[in-house]
Automatic annotation (TrEMBL):
GO terms for molecular function: ATP binding; metal ion binding; threonine-tRNA ligase activity; tRNA binding. It comes from Paracoccus zhejiangensis. Binds 1 zinc ion per subunit. It is found in: Cytoplasm. This is Threonine--tRNA ligase. It catalyses: tRNA(Thr) + L-threonine + ATP = L-threonyl-tRNA(Thr) + AMP + diphosphate + H(+). Its EC number is 6.1.1.3. GO terms for biological process: threonyl-tRNA aminoacylation. Its cofactor is Zn(2+). Residues 232-544 form the Aminoacyl-transfer RNA synthetases class-II family profile domain.
Amino acid sequence: MSQISLTFPDGNARDYPAGITAAEVAESIAPSLAKRAISASLDGKHIDLAWPITSSGTIAINTMKDEAPALELIRHDFAHVMARAVQKLWPDTKVTIGPVRDFGWFYDFDRAEPFTPEDLGAIEAEMKQIIAARDPVRTEVWDRDRAIAYYKDQNEPFKLELIDRIPEGEDLRMYWHGDWQDLCRGPHLQNTGQLPADAFKLTHLAGAYWLGDATRPMLQRIYGVAFRNRDDLKAHLTMLEEAAKRDHRKQGREMDLFHMQEEAPGQIFWHPNGWNIYVALQDYMRRRQRAGGYVEVNTPQVVSRKLWEESGHWENYQDHMFIVEVDEEHAKTKTVNALKPMNCPCHVQIFNVGLKSYRDLPLRMAEFGSCNRYEPSGALHGIMRVRGFTQDDAHIFCTENQIEAETKRFIEFLSAIYRDLGFDSFRVKFATRPEHRAGSDETWDKAESALLSATRAAGIEPEVNPGEGAFYGPKLEFVLTDAIGRDWQCGTHQVDFVLPERLDASYIGEDGAKHRPVMLHRATLGSFERFIGILIENFAGKLPLWLAPRQVVVASIVSDADDYVHEIVAQLQARGIRAEADTRNEKINYKVREHSVAKVPVILAIGMKEVETRTVSMRRLDNQGSQNLSLEEVTNQLASEATPPDLR
């Protein structure tokens, strides 16, 4: 029997017969490890303990202490156990797919009757019985004909379609959890009893088209979450409760910020309060960019198909573009245009006007660019995921030698802005070449090497995000963590050798010859709409005073104080504070409650005592007490707080 060599994390290696399983490897090390083992990692690939190992490599045995593989297995096994429970309770239900996702999983079912929220409790109870039974999990590899015959006999049409989608020659792996079977790549745990019965919960129901295709059957999707222990589950559910309270859509209604309606799917109707936030944020970014050496431009919304073909977007991005056909006067055929989904090709057009010298580089060109991208209706989510949005977009035209300095400069620029906006730290991901891309492998090698080297020179070792780069170049993704621990990917920085070549951009070098510039695509906030949603949820609507849509309400306690109320409002407004008067014939407690729900940061209550002493009674949001201050004191204090961070 042929031998293979397996190298362990400590660097030691052992020889084993080819075909040995990871479970047997664990037993050879220590029986105690074999009992704790749940899976293995072979040359970085997550594998089942029962799979035969046929070639040499590096191996690590995973236990429940190894968080990433443990959570993947737990959530994947829970998906199968849930599907088994559903078919036990409703045998006529057809199963489809059940992938792992953030914090849990979902599984799609084809069932005549709709599931109800009450059904989730019954499914959970059945799942716990399956876990308690400790049924063994086993796997086999079948040939295609046997698998097809099996699913025809089981009347599972969706599984038959999945088999058709699996390339010829690829293994068809069958998993049994007890007597319930599913087509699955694996890996899985060794028995259902390894699942933590007190660390999962089914959360909600949704509809979903089969394979995301609106022309295919509508299925019923059940979502669940799972963790390694009860405490982690409890912490996650608490976070979900807090997230529901912070939801920007809920806050948007209470604060009267925006609305959306069917007549404009994926588009936002900004109300005056919401637009105050938008303008304050945009003004701040405009000042920051000017100070950072950017020139601001503006480019057309509707651009000819010809430019999108030249840039490569027509080939690589057309499914996300809104096409506009126009009957030009006297034209025999319609002119085909598109709403711009991004600004980069238009910025190259500005760069290409007139000769550029190496002395002009780096040229940092910024635009608050309004873009439109098609998103499926099911993917739309408040102002976080829309079809119409504005980016704080910029493109830096530079030489190859300037990539490192400009990357470092941008990371410092972004860091300062994130700190001003309440985010003291972030993670950086390095997104590499996608499967569908423009440019040669040589060009991508150069671009990836340049960006990675520049990032490391800036003192950052990024996480690798394989295959998630743009079609024209690799990118850095800047990931924020909000007040309740959620991650948000916001800023990006990309190195692009492709578009300057495709769109014939050039500059005159020191040698007097033409050279191609490198194009660095960068966005700090990304979409203004999405970032405002993140801010609203991060601060639970209680935005810093300089960003708050309504900063101060001056409320009268008695009508005789109205004149002083209006005097205070005028004085605050003269100092640039968004102040308003509330002189309605309502009790002060009613006014305070109403403005507190609307997240007004400061309420100044004015009665006759305040009129006589030329003072104000200042109440802060979420602060039960009040301060009695002179009008001058309060004006100076609020004017300072309302000043944007870059102007202090």
